[in-house]
């Protein structure tokens, strides 16, 4: 795609078609024009926190009704804004067209009424969002505390690997009654715009519409960021990004600004010796492992990269691990195309590493990797390959181990999701994995599908962190005096 695209600025219910600057996307040879955001910084954030008050004229039921109505308008076949975003993403995303189509077609499900209610209840507590909740402490007789979760003025620096991220941002902003400026990524500058334009088409003057702005600027543009990242207009920064981008944002932190990081993580797998109880069991494990590695073409933080396998490290154990690798590779080739396909833009650096392994006579077994179909690498030395941090494009590294402790000790603060087989092993080691830094544990095969904890992410609860938790404490004068003297 070489067409020069136009990406409007969304400014509080208005579509600003000012295409003053040209930028290049990260993939697909795409270039686009959009507004010079530095000319609008005074309107993108709210100077006065009291300007959130219109959101508090809405009940939670009003918010659910609005979001449910929005979801019904996010049907890909009927929504020209989403169609434009989908077409662009097909050129710029690491996901194949079939996978992207499925993700865009599933957007309405995220806005289903019960999904919204469950998200709010699990992630924050609807009572706290709706009003003041009374709480008392036994060691403070006569003192009553009332707590409420208030929204905040926020900038969301979103990722472009899945369209779900932009939808999740819109949902969280509405549920918490917050004000947001969404900074879009260069590899997906249109999805958040499409959502906001649909909101404008539906209800341009609604408070929830007018508290969403969407803009693109090049990260590091001091003229824009010095003006935006100011505690007089922003209280929260929610950043999805790599190490460099997060480190860059931290220079703007000061009292009054809270940084919530949803940074990329590395995920993995731990497979116990029970996987080798029978050939039928091993095939079952391989199919589930293929899902965790190959789902979404391994573009998500949740996807497995390094797989520790308790097969043993002797010759027999390595042979068992090689058998699992071959079965997993075969299962991955059979995954449905809405979930996984050969990668359309295979990482050349990773391909070079695979070609090098193929020339090595010993130390590793390579299954696949001839073209773009993905590969399984079996390490014979009990260690991950030295390029494990760039594993992608449906490439997994199976590491035979003798003791599960080896897998547990490999976990650190950069580890997000760990798929584990069998479940009894998960229950046995989950506390230790949490101590090591793991943030999400799932049954093998559930990395991209299980969602019982969707309101907890990267070891935090984003909805709670997005709120300001305000306490109102009351007591009569005598009680207050006695409590103060006791202190």
Describe this structure in words.
It is a single chain. Helix 3 runs antiparallel to helix 4. The strands form four sheets. The chain has a seven-stranded mixed sheet with strand order 3-2-10-9-8-11-12, sandwiched between helices. With about 475 residues, the protein is an alpha/beta fold. It has 19 helices and 20 strands. It folds into two domains: about 5-265 and about 460-470, Aldehyde Dehydrogenase, Chain A, domain 1 (3-Layer(aba) Sandwich); about 265-445, Aldehyde Dehydrogenase, Chain A, domain 2. It is about 40% helix and about 20% strand. Strand 4 (about 20-25) and strand 5 form a beta hairpin. The longest helix has 19 residues, at about 315-335. It is globular and about 75 Å long. The chain has helices at about 40-45, 60-70, 80-90, 95-105, 105-110, 115-125, 125-130, 165-175, 190-200, 205-210, 220-230, 245-250, 280-295, 315-335, 350-360, 405-410, 425-435, 460-465, 475-485, and strands at about 5, 10, 15, 20-25, 30-35, 135, 145-150, 155, 180-185, 210-215, 235-240, 260, 265-270, 305-310, 365-370, 375-380, 395-400, 415-420, 440-445, 470-475.
Chart the SSEs and their pairings.
Blueprint: E1 4-7, E2 9-11, E3 14-16, E4 21-24, E5 31-34, H1 41-44, H2 60-72, H3 80-92, H4 97-105, H5 107-110, H6 113-123, H7 126-130, E6 133-136, E7 144-150, E8 153-157, H8 164-175, E9 179-183, H9 191-202, H10 207-210, E10 212-215, H11 222-228, E11 236-239, H12 243-250, E12 258-261, E13 266-271, H13 279-294, E14 304-309, H14 315-333, H15 348-359, E15 364-368, E16 375-379, E17 395-400, H16 404-409, E18 415-421, H17 423-436, E19 440-443, H18 462-466, E20 468-474, H19 477-486
Parallel strand pairs: 1-5, 8-9, 8-11, 9-10, 11-12, 13-14, 13-18, 14-17, 16-17, 18-19
Antiparallel strand pairs: 2-3, 2-10, 4-5, 6-7, 7-20, 15-16
Helix pairs in contact: 3-4, 3-9, 13-14
